[in-house]
Fold this sequence. Notes:
alpha+beta, 6-stranded antiparallel β-sheet, two-stranded antiparallel sheet, endopeptidase fold (from Nostoc punctiforme)
Amino acid sequence: MTPKRLAGFAATALLFVAPALSAAPLDVPPAPASLLAAGGSLGGLTADRMGATVRPRPADAAAAQPKADVAPAWVDTVMARSMALLGTPYRWGGSSPEQGFDCSGLVRYVLGDSLAAELPRRSRDMARMRGAERIGDRSELAVGDLVFFGRSGRVDHVGIYVGDGRFVHAPSRGKAVRISSMGEAYWRKRYVEALRVKPARG
Length: 202
């Protein structure tokens, strides 16, 4: 093909390609709610926002995103259930919104309701669960992980990690379900380990 014919072919092709490019949508769908929780303050997040539907990305845009930034869909469900229970009164042995919650009752309720996961009743037994992924370092924590606290390595408290170094839990008598910072001296000294529980259903 001569240079003159090649130039003519390129000019003709451009007439068809240019309009398609100009019409391509440029909007980018919002990030999943779990990533919002992991990336910044939780002060402005509500259960409604946690449960908001996220439009699927086009295949090419999804491929361009690092896999570490894409949270499983069930994480949003766990966060929505947890946030909806903020303010529920503490009750030793409690395991429902109507009764109130202790720490393990809250975790068992949230994961059972959102993941169909069957967890042991006591926090120390949860920490010994088989089949859950053990998280070796705090820097590897992800939203939805279970975080365990205690003294001398003996677990006596559990919560759900919500990102940004924070976790939701039922603290103690006279208090309500709340979000606390793992950076507080009390919790920092008592941190023992973390587990990642996957959904029991697909």
